Amino acid sequence: MLRSLPQPLPFLWICLVLAAFGAGCGSSESPPGSQQSTAPDGELAVPYRAVATVGMIGDIVKNIAGDRANVSVLIGAGSDPHLYTPTRGDLAKLLDADIIFYNGLLLEGRLTDALMRTGRQKPVYAVTEMLDEDYVIGLGEGDDAHPDPHVWMDVQGWLLATGAVEKALSEFDPAGAETYAANAQTYRETLQALDDYTRTAIASIPQGQRVLVTAHDAFNYMGRAYDLEVMGIQGLSTESEASLQDINRLVDLLVERQIPAVFVESTIADKNVRALIEGARAKGHDVRIGGSLFSDAMGKEGTYEGTYVGMIDNNATLIARALGGEAPVRGMQGQLSQNGPE
Protein backbone atom coordinates (compact mmCIF):
# COMPACT_ATOMS: atom_id res chain seq x y z
CA MET A 1 0.00 0.00 0.00
CA LEU A 2 1.12 3.55 -0.69
CA ARG A 3 1.92 5.69 2.30
CA SER A 4 -0.02 8.92 2.71
CA LEU A 5 1.63 12.13 1.61
CA PRO A 6 3.77 13.62 4.40
CA GLN A 7 2.59 16.67 6.28
CA PRO A 8 4.47 19.98 5.91
CA LEU A 9 7.81 19.95 7.72
CA PRO A 10 8.73 22.20 10.69
CA PHE A 11 10.50 25.49 9.99
CA LEU A 12 13.37 25.40 12.47
CA TRP A 13 16.05 27.31 10.57
CA ILE A 14 14.14 30.51 9.72
CA CYS A 15 16.19 32.75 12.05
CA LEU A 16 19.48 31.82 10.40
CA VAL A 17 18.15 32.41 6.92
CA LEU A 18 16.44 35.67 7.83
CA ALA A 19 19.67 36.85 9.43
CA ALA A 20 21.37 36.38 6.08
CA PHE A 21 18.79 38.74 4.58
CA GLY A 22 19.06 41.29 7.35
CA ALA A 23 15.87 40.32 9.15
CA GLY A 24 15.45 39.10 12.69
CA CYS A 25 13.12 36.79 14.55
CA GLY A 26 12.24 39.06 17.44
CA SER A 27 9.67 41.08 15.51
CA SER A 28 6.01 40.20 15.69
CA GLU A 29 5.74 40.79 11.94
CA SER A 30 5.82 37.76 9.70
CA PRO A 31 9.04 37.47 7.66
CA PRO A 32 8.82 37.67 3.84
CA GLY A 33 7.54 34.43 2.34
CA SER A 34 6.55 32.89 5.65
CA GLN A 35 2.85 32.97 4.79
CA GLN A 36 1.20 31.77 1.61
CA SER A 37 -0.12 34.35 -0.89
CA THR A 38 -3.62 35.49 -0.05
CA ALA A 39 -6.17 37.52 -1.92
CA PRO A 40 -8.00 40.44 -0.22
CA ASP A 41 -10.86 38.12 0.77
CA GLY A 42 -8.44 35.79 2.55
CA GLU A 43 -8.52 33.11 -0.15
CA LEU A 44 -5.37 31.75 -1.79
CA ALA A 45 -4.15 34.18 -4.41
CA VAL A 46 -3.75 32.66 -7.87
CA PRO A 47 -1.26 32.25 -9.36
CA TYR A 48 0.57 31.19 -6.23
CA ARG A 49 4.31 30.47 -6.00
CA ALA A 50 5.48 26.86 -6.32
CA VAL A 51 9.13 25.80 -6.13
CA ALA A 52 10.62 22.48 -7.26
CA THR A 53 14.17 21.40 -6.60
CA VAL A 54 14.82 19.75 -9.99
CA GLY A 55 13.38 20.11 -13.47
CA MET A 56 11.72 16.70 -13.57
CA ILE A 57 9.58 17.64 -10.57
CA GLY A 58 9.01 21.14 -11.89
CA ASP A 59 7.65 19.61 -15.10
CA ILE A 60 5.04 17.63 -13.16
CA VAL A 61 3.97 20.70 -11.20
CA LYS A 62 3.72 22.87 -14.31
CA ASN A 63 1.62 20.30 -16.15
CA ILE A 64 -0.77 19.73 -13.25
CA ALA A 65 -1.00 23.24 -11.80
CA GLY A 66 -1.32 24.96 -15.17
CA ASP A 67 -1.94 28.69 -14.85
CA ARG A 68 -2.87 28.40 -11.17
CA ALA A 69 0.83 28.50 -10.18
CA ASN A 70 4.06 30.20 -11.13
CA VAL A 71 6.62 27.40 -10.94
CA SER A 72 10.35 27.91 -10.47
CA VAL A 73 13.12 25.31 -10.35
CA LEU A 74 16.19 25.61 -8.12
CA ILE A 75 18.61 23.19 -9.83
CA GLY A 76 18.60 23.81 -13.56
CA ALA A 77 19.87 22.10 -16.71
CA GLY A 78 23.46 20.92 -16.56
CA SER A 79 23.62 21.08 -12.75
CA ASP A 80 24.28 18.01 -10.63
CA PRO A 81 21.90 17.82 -7.64
CA HIS A 82 24.28 15.48 -5.80
CA LEU A 83 26.90 18.24 -5.64
CA TYR A 84 24.67 21.29 -5.71
CA THR A 85 25.17 23.90 -3.00
CA PRO A 86 22.17 26.21 -2.37
CA THR A 87 22.74 29.88 -3.10
CA ARG A 88 21.40 32.96 -1.37
CA GLY A 89 18.90 33.22 -4.22
CA ASP A 90 17.70 29.66 -3.59
CA LEU A 91 17.05 30.44 0.05
CA ALA A 92 15.09 33.52 -0.97
CA LYS A 93 12.95 31.41 -3.33
CA LEU A 94 12.26 28.89 -0.58
CA LEU A 95 11.22 31.65 1.80
CA ASP A 96 9.01 33.25 -0.82
CA ALA A 97 7.35 30.02 -1.97
CA ASP A 98 3.81 29.03 -1.10
CA ILE A 99 4.43 25.32 -1.70
CA ILE A 100 7.64 23.35 -2.29
CA PHE A 101 8.29 19.98 -3.92
CA TYR A 102 11.48 17.95 -3.75
CA ASN A 103 12.51 14.43 -4.73
CA GLY A 104 13.76 13.01 -1.45
CA LEU A 105 15.77 9.77 -1.11
CA LEU A 106 18.81 12.04 -0.58
CA LEU A 107 18.91 13.24 -4.21
CA GLU A 108 19.24 16.89 -3.27
CA GLY A 109 22.48 16.37 -1.34
CA ARG A 110 23.60 19.62 0.26
CA LEU A 111 20.18 21.16 -0.24
CA THR A 112 18.50 18.46 1.85
CA ASP A 113 19.14 20.07 5.24
CA ALA A 114 17.55 23.33 4.12
CA LEU A 115 14.53 21.48 2.73
CA MET A 116 14.07 19.40 5.86
CA ARG A 117 13.91 22.59 7.94
CA THR A 118 11.65 24.64 5.67
CA GLY A 119 8.14 25.20 6.91
CA ARG A 120 6.25 27.32 9.44
CA GLN A 121 2.91 26.55 7.83
CA LYS A 122 4.73 26.22 4.50
CA PRO A 123 3.87 22.90 2.75
CA VAL A 124 6.94 20.95 1.67
CA TYR A 125 6.48 17.59 -0.05
CA ALA A 126 8.80 14.83 -1.22
CA VAL A 127 7.24 13.39 -4.37
CA THR A 128 8.76 9.96 -3.69
CA GLU A 129 7.09 9.59 -0.29
CA MET A 130 4.06 7.94 -1.87
CA LEU A 131 6.17 5.11 -3.26
CA ASP A 132 5.85 1.72 -1.64
CA GLU A 133 9.01 0.81 0.27
CA ASP A 134 9.36 -2.32 -1.82
CA TYR A 135 9.53 -0.18 -4.96
CA VAL A 136 12.56 1.84 -3.85
CA ILE A 137 15.86 0.30 -4.88
CA GLY A 138 18.29 0.05 -1.99
CA LEU A 139 22.01 -0.05 -2.63
CA GLY A 140 24.88 -0.98 -0.34
CA GLU A 141 24.77 -2.72 3.01
CA GLY A 142 25.05 -1.79 6.67
CA ASP A 143 26.34 1.73 7.25
CA ASP A 144 26.77 2.15 3.50
CA ALA A 145 23.11 1.38 2.72
CA HIS A 146 21.26 4.13 0.86
CA PRO A 147 18.22 4.49 -1.39
CA ASP A 148 18.53 5.09 -5.11
CA PRO A 149 16.80 8.44 -5.76
CA HIS A 150 16.60 8.25 -9.57
CA VAL A 151 12.95 7.16 -9.66
CA TRP A 152 12.11 9.26 -12.75
CA MET A 153 14.08 6.81 -14.92
CA ASP A 154 11.08 4.47 -14.68
CA VAL A 155 8.08 6.23 -16.18
CA GLN A 156 5.72 4.12 -14.06
CA GLY A 157 7.51 5.38 -10.95
CA TRP A 158 7.12 8.96 -12.16
CA LEU A 159 3.43 8.33 -12.70
CA LEU A 160 3.23 7.67 -8.95
CA ALA A 161 5.10 10.91 -8.30
CA THR A 162 2.52 12.64 -10.50
CA GLY A 163 -0.20 11.30 -8.22
CA ALA A 164 1.64 12.69 -5.21
CA VAL A 165 1.81 16.16 -6.73
CA GLU A 166 -1.86 16.09 -7.73
CA LYS A 167 -2.86 15.11 -4.18
CA ALA A 168 -0.66 17.79 -2.60
CA LEU A 169 -1.92 20.57 -4.86
CA SER A 170 -5.55 19.57 -4.32
CA GLU A 171 -5.08 19.67 -0.55
CA PHE A 172 -3.21 22.97 -0.73
CA ASP A 173 -5.66 24.63 -3.13
CA PRO A 174 -9.06 22.87 -2.95
CA ALA A 175 -10.60 25.42 -5.31
CA GLY A 176 -8.36 24.09 -8.07
CA ALA A 177 -8.92 20.38 -7.38
CA GLU A 178 -11.01 19.77 -10.50
CA THR A 179 -8.41 21.52 -12.65
CA TYR A 180 -5.63 19.47 -11.11
CA ALA A 181 -7.51 16.22 -11.64
CA ALA A 182 -8.15 17.00 -15.31
CA ASN A 183 -4.59 18.17 -15.96
CA ALA A 184 -3.14 15.17 -14.13
CA GLN A 185 -5.22 12.77 -16.22
CA THR A 186 -3.98 14.37 -19.44
CA TYR A 187 -0.38 14.23 -18.22
CA ARG A 188 -0.77 10.61 -17.15
CA GLU A 189 -1.95 9.68 -20.62
CA THR A 190 1.15 11.33 -22.10
CA LEU A 191 3.40 9.52 -19.64
CA GLN A 192 1.75 6.18 -20.39
CA ALA A 193 2.46 6.71 -24.10
CA LEU A 194 6.06 7.52 -23.17
CA ASP A 195 6.33 4.34 -21.12
CA ASP A 196 4.96 2.27 -23.99
CA TYR A 197 7.43 3.84 -26.43
CA THR A 198 10.38 3.29 -24.10
CA ARG A 199 9.42 -0.34 -23.52
CA THR A 200 9.09 -1.03 -27.25
CA ALA A 201 12.34 0.74 -28.16
CA ILE A 202 14.43 -1.06 -25.54
CA ALA A 203 12.84 -4.44 -26.36
CA SER A 204 14.07 -4.04 -29.95
CA ILE A 205 17.71 -4.27 -28.79
CA PRO A 206 19.16 -7.78 -29.25
CA GLN A 207 19.13 -9.46 -25.84
CA GLY A 208 22.88 -10.01 -25.73
CA GLN A 209 23.57 -6.31 -26.35
CA ARG A 210 21.03 -4.97 -23.87
CA VAL A 211 23.77 -3.60 -21.61
CA LEU A 212 23.77 0.07 -20.62
CA VAL A 213 27.17 1.43 -19.54
CA THR A 214 27.13 5.03 -18.30
CA ALA A 215 29.15 7.47 -16.22
CA HIS A 216 27.38 6.81 -12.90
CA ASP A 217 24.71 4.61 -11.33
CA ALA A 218 21.64 6.65 -12.30
CA PHE A 219 19.76 4.12 -14.43
CA ASN A 220 18.88 1.27 -12.08
CA TYR A 221 15.14 1.99 -12.19
CA MET A 222 15.27 2.14 -15.97
CA GLY A 223 17.14 -1.14 -16.09
CA ARG A 224 14.64 -2.88 -13.82
CA ALA A 225 11.61 -1.49 -15.64
CA TYR A 226 12.75 -2.08 -19.22
CA ASP A 227 14.99 -5.15 -18.94
CA LEU A 228 18.38 -3.49 -19.32
CA GLU A 229 21.57 -4.61 -17.62
CA VAL A 230 22.99 -1.40 -16.16
CA MET A 231 26.64 -0.68 -15.37
CA GLY A 232 27.78 2.66 -13.92
CA ILE A 233 31.46 3.59 -13.79
CA GLN A 234 30.97 5.71 -10.67
CA GLY A 235 28.67 4.89 -7.80
CA LEU A 236 25.19 6.19 -7.08
CA SER A 237 26.45 9.68 -6.21
CA THR A 238 28.72 11.61 -8.54
CA GLU A 239 30.83 12.41 -5.46
CA SER A 240 32.21 8.87 -5.62
CA GLU A 241 35.36 8.12 -7.60
CA ALA A 242 35.90 5.42 -10.18
CA SER A 243 38.93 3.21 -9.53
CA LEU A 244 41.26 1.69 -12.12
CA GLN A 245 39.80 -1.66 -11.13
CA ASP A 246 36.29 -0.39 -11.99
CA ILE A 247 37.49 0.79 -15.41
CA ASN A 248 39.29 -2.47 -16.18
CA ARG A 249 36.30 -4.56 -15.10
CA LEU A 250 34.01 -2.69 -17.47
CA VAL A 251 36.54 -2.81 -20.31
CA ASP A 252 36.64 -6.60 -19.99
CA LEU A 253 32.83 -6.72 -20.05
CA LEU A 254 32.64 -4.57 -23.18
CA VAL A 255 35.14 -6.77 -24.99
CA GLU A 256 33.69 -10.08 -23.84
CA ARG A 257 30.08 -9.12 -24.62
CA GLN A 258 30.99 -7.12 -27.75
CA ILE A 259 28.91 -4.18 -26.56
CA PRO A 260 28.89 -1.59 -29.37
CA ALA A 261 28.37 1.63 -27.41
CA VAL A 262 28.69 3.38 -24.06
CA PHE A 263 27.06 6.63 -23.01
CA VAL A 264 28.08 9.96 -21.51
CA GLU A 265 25.78 12.03 -19.29
CA SER A 266 24.84 15.68 -19.58
CA THR A 267 25.87 16.60 -16.02
CA ILE A 268 29.09 14.55 -15.67
CA ALA A 269 32.54 14.84 -17.27
CA ASP A 270 33.17 12.18 -19.90
CA LYS A 271 36.78 11.29 -19.04
CA ASN A 272 35.92 7.92 -17.46
CA VAL A 273 33.71 6.92 -20.38
CA ARG A 274 36.47 7.79 -22.83
CA ALA A 275 38.90 5.72 -20.75
CA LEU A 276 36.61 2.74 -21.35
CA ILE A 277 36.70 3.35 -25.09
CA GLU A 278 40.49 3.55 -25.13
CA GLY A 279 40.82 0.43 -22.98
CA ALA A 280 38.49 -1.58 -25.22
CA ARG A 281 40.30 -0.37 -28.34
CA ALA A 282 43.61 -1.52 -26.85
CA LYS A 283 42.07 -5.00 -26.62
CA GLY A 284 40.86 -4.96 -30.21
CA HIS A 285 37.21 -3.95 -29.71
CA ASP A 286 35.90 -0.66 -31.05
CA VAL A 287 33.30 1.01 -28.84
CA ARG A 288 31.65 4.31 -29.67
CA ILE A 289 29.85 6.91 -27.59
CA GLY A 290 26.17 6.25 -28.20
CA GLY A 291 25.14 9.79 -27.27
CA SER A 292 24.59 12.00 -24.25
CA LEU A 293 21.93 10.82 -21.81
CA PHE A 294 20.07 12.98 -19.31
CA SER A 295 20.42 11.52 -15.82
CA ASP A 296 20.15 14.01 -12.95
CA ALA A 297 18.87 16.96 -14.97
CA MET A 298 16.80 17.59 -18.07
CA GLY A 299 17.89 19.53 -21.15
CA LYS A 300 17.91 23.30 -21.57
CA GLU A 301 14.74 25.14 -20.68
CA GLY A 302 12.58 25.86 -23.70
CA THR A 303 13.72 22.79 -25.63
CA TYR A 304 11.90 19.48 -26.07
CA GLU A 305 14.67 17.77 -24.10
CA GLY A 306 13.98 20.35 -21.38
CA THR A 307 10.75 18.50 -20.58
CA TYR A 308 10.44 15.20 -18.74
CA VAL A 309 8.91 13.53 -21.81
CA GLY A 310 11.74 14.84 -24.01
CA MET A 311 14.34 13.73 -21.47
CA ILE A 312 13.17 10.11 -21.40
CA ASP A 313 12.43 10.07 -25.15
CA ASN A 314 16.04 11.17 -25.74
CA ASN A 315 17.42 8.45 -23.48
CA ALA A 316 15.28 5.61 -24.82
CA THR A 317 15.86 6.56 -28.44
CA LEU A 318 19.63 6.93 -28.15
CA ILE A 319 20.04 3.73 -26.14
CA ALA A 320 17.95 1.68 -28.57
CA ARG A 321 19.66 2.98 -31.71
CA ALA A 322 23.21 2.77 -30.35
CA LEU A 323 22.84 -0.78 -29.00
CA GLY A 324 21.38 -2.28 -32.15
CA GLY A 325 17.67 -1.69 -31.65
CA GLU A 326 15.14 0.29 -33.63
CA ALA A 327 13.75 3.73 -32.88
CA PRO A 328 12.98 6.84 -34.96
CA VAL A 329 15.96 9.19 -35.31
CA ARG A 330 13.92 12.07 -33.88
CA GLY A 331 12.21 9.98 -31.22
CA MET A 332 8.64 9.31 -30.18
CA GLN A 333 7.27 12.72 -31.17
CA GLY A 334 9.76 13.60 -33.91
CA GLN A 335 11.16 16.45 -31.83
CA LEU A 336 14.58 15.28 -30.66
CA SER A 337 17.62 17.28 -31.67
CA GLN A 338 20.45 15.54 -33.50
CA ASN A 339 22.34 13.83 -30.67
CA GLY A 340 23.32 10.43 -31.96
CA PRO A 341 26.42 8.25 -31.72
CA GLU A 342 29.87 9.72 -32.28
Structure description:
- The protein is an alpha/beta fold and about 350 residues long.
- The protein is about 35% helix and about 15% strand.
- It is built from ten helices and ten strands.
- The strands form four sheets. The protein has a four-stranded parallel sheet with strand order 2-1-3-4, with helices on both faces. Strands 5-6 form a two-stranded antiparallel ribbon.
- Helix 6 (about 175-205) runs parallel beside helix 10.
- Residues about 1-35 and about 235-240 have low confidence and may be disordered.
List the helices and strands and how they pair.
Blueprint: H1 14-20, E1 48-54, H2 55-65, E2 69-75, H3 88-96, E3 99-102, H4 112-116, E4 124-126, E5 138-139, E6 146-147, H5 155-172, H6 177-203, E7 211-214, H7 220-226, E8 229-232, H8 244-257, E9 261-265, H9 271-282, E10 288-293, H10 308-322
Parallel strand pairs: 1-2, 1-3, 3-4, 7-8, 9-10
Antiparallel strand pairs: 5-6
Helix pairs in contact: 2-5, 2-6, 5-6, 6-10, 8-9
What is the tally of beta strands? 10
The N- to C-terminal Cα distance equals 45 Å
- Classification by helices and strands: alpha/beta
Q: Let me know the largest β-sheet.
A: 4 strands, parallel
The best one-word shape is globular
**Strand percent estimate:** 5-15%
* Annotation field: number of helices: 10
Question: Which short descriptors sum up this protein?
Answer:
342 residues, alpha/beta, 10 strands, 37% helix, 13% strand, globular, disordered N terminus
